[in-house]
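Page 42, continued from yesterday. The earlier attempt failed because a stray header line got pasted into the input along with the sequence. Redoing it now with the clean sequence only.
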Amino acid sequence: MVHVLGSRILLSPVDPQRSRDFYGGALGLAVYREFGTGPERGTVYFLGGGFLELSGRSDTPPSPGLRLWFQVADVQEAHEELRERGVEILHPPRREPWGLVEMWIADPDGVRIAVVEVPEDHPLRHRP
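This time it went through. Structure tokens are written below.
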């Protein structure tokens, strides 16, 4: 197995500035670094233990099979904050049959994002 030292998700949005406004503004993700200028400018955001890089431009949105999973401490608080910032909520927070509390939103190119809270009693919180 290759020893992976770091990782990031790479997105090439249809409209890079609109996507930067969404991820940096509406979602409030912190910037790790920026590079380049003008339409070729790239922005890398912190994502907990990983990174999300917006770079380049695409003529078509990403595949509908691409989805992001963001774990938060309190999904209801995230719901209220994102709604106040004008983010469209596709599916409000609710406890799913598998025990996670999930809310779904989408970025400007339609990339679906699960915003997830792992409840105290969920098996993901405990190691056997």
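Notes: The mean pLDDT is 91.
Reminder to self: strip header lines before submitting.
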